């Protein structure tokens, strides 16, 4: 007799069991978060889908946070969580770091907002950014998206060409997204992007070389844009061999090699690129470097930056932006990088992150769960056979999310963890335990 004909005597499939566990977890979520539910119902009447940042959309409704302190957040229904979302890597300093607080208050009291002029603060921060990330020149923007927008404009202006080679799964901002092997419909200058279908390994290195050389032969290649580790793409590190191959092919063809370090600059004292021995023509930055405020920056070789963006150069491009040198960002960003996230602190945080990922993978051994990433950025993946080649199990990832919330851990539903500085060690231990208990509780659907 087949299982289809006798559901009572046959064991449940992993999918069926997961669907039941997920439905139960979702009903508990709804019952435990009535304020968030109500707030969502109000918000959809004002904001499309109830939010102003698509990433935060989630079903049946997102949690509505009330406040944060240190490395914890509290939602409107009164639950406390350890914050592992870490504002998608921008929240490195936590919610109320005393150094950032002092910088904000003293900027407000002594400097003021909206001066509408150049200031010493932007030059001071530029000097620190150049020294830390080995840049000859830098320009500030409001977001990482804008940093990439202007870096691409620089490459196009400098080379007189248009096309840009990018990689499957790459994310370079709100209008530069390349999941599923193609440019998202809202990509700026969509027709100019050529997407390499692989990322990170030897196969990707060979394909990158071929695509870069072919596009250059057609005569219109301006730049190669790549992340050293794909962040939004799932915390998948690119191998050194792959990144060097992409860089070499770009340089041999005269294309500008742009390394997107918006997420990865926090992974090593001088950024991931320096750690891997890369020498990009341009680098883009963002996230935590605004000290908690909106920030982006791009910089690199002075012959490119000066010829494209020095207003004294005839035919140079304008790079405008009302808030590019906003005093709060210039001072909070500087204080954070200068006093808090020093080179030593950076090394230590990433050591703790590597240790945590190692412990999590040890607990998950033999299950469908895998943890990826580098240092303080961790991705989690559920796969049918526990290998990356096998099918993704979004149902298990969702179940994990609902149940980690019940355990008091605020993580992204897509499975991304960005560690904050100073998360108590007890909380990291508690998380490893919670993951272990989750896997045991659902052993039937988690074991490979
Ligand atoms: N590049 C990368 C690698 C990113 O991860 C992000 C943001 N997640 C961006 C660019 C865009 O930065 P922002 O959200 O500040 O525009």
UniProtKB/TrEMBL annotation:
Which keywords label this protein? Pyridoxal phosphate, Transferase
UniProt-listed SUPFAM superfamilies = PLP-dependent transferases (SSF53383)
Q: Give GO terms: molecular function aspect only.
A: transferase activity
Superkingdom to which the source organism belongs: Eukaryota
Name the InterPro entries for this protein: Aminotrans_3, PyrdxlP-dep_Trfase, PyrdxlP-dep_Trfase_major, PyrdxlP-dep_Trfase_small
- Name the cofactor(s) required for activity, per the record: pyridoxal 5'-phosphate
PANTHER family registered for this protein in UniProt: GLUTAMATE-1-SEMIALDEHYDE 2,1-AMINOMUTASE (PTHR43713), GLUTAMATE-1-SEMIALDEHYDE 2,1-AMINOMUTASE 1, CHLOROPLASTIC-RELATED (PTHR43713:SF3)
The record's comment on protein family reads: Belongs to the class-III pyridoxal-phosphate-dependent aminotransferase family.
**The protein, known as:** Pyridoxal phosphate-dependent transferase
Give the species this sequence originates from: Neurospora intermedia
Q: What is the lineage of its organism?
A: Eukaryota, Fungi, Dikarya, Ascomycota, Pezizomycotina
């Amino acid at each position: 007799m087949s299982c289809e004909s006798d559901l009572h005597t046959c064991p449940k499939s992993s999918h069926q069991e997961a669907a039941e566990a997920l439905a139960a977890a979702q009903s508990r979520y709804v019952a435990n978060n009535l304020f968030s539910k109500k707030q969502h119902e109000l918000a959809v009447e004002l904001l499309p889908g109830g939010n102003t940042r698509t990433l935060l959309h989630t079903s049946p409704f997102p949690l509505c946070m009330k406040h944060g302190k240190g490395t914890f957040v509290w939602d409107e229904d009164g639950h406390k969580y350890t914050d592992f979302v870490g504002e998608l890597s921008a929240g490195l300093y936590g919610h109320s770091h005393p150094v950032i607080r002092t910088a904000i208050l003293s900027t407000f009291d002594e400097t003021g907002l909206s001066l509408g002029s150049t200031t010493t603060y932007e030059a001071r921060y530029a000097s620190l950014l150049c020294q830390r990330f080995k840049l000859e020149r830098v320009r500030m923007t409001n977001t990482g998206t804008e940093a990439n927008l202007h870096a691409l404009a620089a490459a196009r202006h400098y080379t007189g060409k248009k096309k840009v080679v990018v990689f499957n799964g790459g994310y370079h901002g709100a209008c530069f997204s390349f999941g599923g092997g193609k440019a998202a419909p809202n990509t700026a200058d969509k027709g100019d992007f050529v997407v390499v279908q692989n990322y990170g390994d030897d196969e990707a290195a060979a394909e990158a070389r071929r695509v870069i050389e072919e596009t250059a032969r057609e005569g219109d290649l301006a730049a190669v844009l790549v992340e050293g580790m794909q962040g939004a793409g799932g915390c998948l590190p690119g191998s050194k061999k792959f990144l060097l191959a992409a860089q070499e092919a770009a340089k041999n063809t005269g294309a500008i090699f742009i390394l997107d370090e918006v997420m990865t600059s926090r992974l090593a004292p001088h950024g991931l690129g320096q750690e891997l021995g890369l020498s990009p023509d341009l680098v883009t930055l963002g996230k935590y470097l605004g000290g908690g405020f909106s920030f982006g920056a791009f910089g690199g070789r002075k012959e490119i930056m000066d010829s494209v963006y020095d207003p004294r150069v005839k035919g140079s491009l304008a790079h405008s932006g009302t808030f590019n040198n906003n005093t709060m960002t210039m001072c909070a960003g500087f204080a954070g990088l200068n006093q808090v996230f020093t080179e030593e602190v950076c090394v230590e945080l990433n050591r703790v992150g590597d240790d945590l990922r190692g412990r999590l993978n040890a607990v998950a051994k033999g299950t469908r769960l895998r943890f990826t990433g580098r240092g303080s950025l961790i991705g989690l993946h559920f796969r049918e056979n526990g290998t990356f080649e096998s099918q993704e199990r979004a149902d298990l990832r969702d179940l994990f999310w609902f149940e980690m919330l019940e355990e008091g851990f605020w993580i992204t539903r897509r499975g991304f963890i960005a560690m904050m500085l100073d998360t108590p060690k007890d909380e990291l231990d508690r998380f490893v335990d919670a993951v272990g208990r989750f896997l045991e509780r659902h052993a039937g659907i988690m074991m490979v």
